[in-house]
Specification:
By secondary structure, the protein is α+β, with helices and mostly antiparallel strands. The protein is 38% helix and 21% strand. It has a four-stranded mixed sheet with strand order 1-2-4-3. Strands 6-5-7 form a three-stranded mixed sheet. Helix 6 packs across helix 11. Keywords: Developmental protein, Disulfide bond, Extracellular matrix, Glycoprotein, Lipoprotein, Secreted, Signal, Wnt signaling pathway. This is Protein Wnt.
Amino acid sequence: MLGYIQNYSILSFTKLIQKHSCKCSPVLTFTLPLYRYMGTLGSQVMCDNIPGLVNKQRQLCRQYPKVMQAIGAGMKDWISECQYQFRNHRWNCNTTARDHNLFGRLLIRSSREVAFVYAISSAGVVYTLAQACSQGELDSCSCDPTKKGSSQDAKGSFNWGGCSDHVEHAIRFSQAFVDAKERKERDARALMNLHNNRAGRKAVKRFMTLECKCHGVSGSCSVRTCWLAMADFRRTGDHLRKRYNGAVQVAVNQYGTGFTAAHTHFKRPSKNDLVYLEDSPDYCIRDHESGSMGTGGRVCNRTSRGVDGCEVMCCGRGYDTSRVSRTTKCECKFQWCCAVHCRDCHQQVDVHTCKGQT
């Protein structure tokens, strides 16, 4: 949902916010609460000034300003999850405030990294909205109203109670808002975005769990009250990272309605797979055209042979070593009752950082 093709959606709020705020770091820029500017400017003015929104998106923006606020407030969570998943990767989901969107020109490409960004952001919208509904923050939704009466699972019968996360509502709204532009385009890139958006939404629903509370004499579980709850967003992030690792390179079929595998030895993608159209850059050097920030200055692990190792991370350019002092808590002791006392221990450690391009 994000990108050069889609700066008309969530990230466009960020650009508009920059016009009404200080020039902050990328992190502060995309975590600024949108509701402050919604309240100052008014929802209609805000929505009318977001560049590139199609009519459907503008209509939803005006109609549900509090939903837009919730989405903006939740952006930091899925971006943080993206950065966690790729913290040891040459591409580390880095953001920039100097371009038209948080990911710069990276999103012009149709690479597997872009596939992940679309999927995790689509999942993030669903998660944020469902959570806001359950917490009573939105007038347009609440708990899942279909979870009433009694039901049963492998453990027996139970009564619906509590507050089940209304994921279906969040999925419907996300699909209407996020996919609106792509449904008007219907070219190869739009089909790719739609597929990955859907995979992200499905990932949130995949990890819904039934949580129950027991009622009965002496702690027995003769009667259960249950509700459906979303799992921690980390599980969605882990799942989509695995899908990134197994992403399928595709080409549009002869009818322009779907995909075929780009190579005969590749599997045909399922609805849960991430798909991409073109190869990724190697992300070794800073390249504005490809959106690569390079790995110069990145911390690497000298003893690792994995992607976080200095040989791989630094792309053979070598690395610099510096000795720094770190303070950690040590010799912690539990004292009755009830505190833990620790000493501050200082140690010198070597930090290895990749050399920049010459």
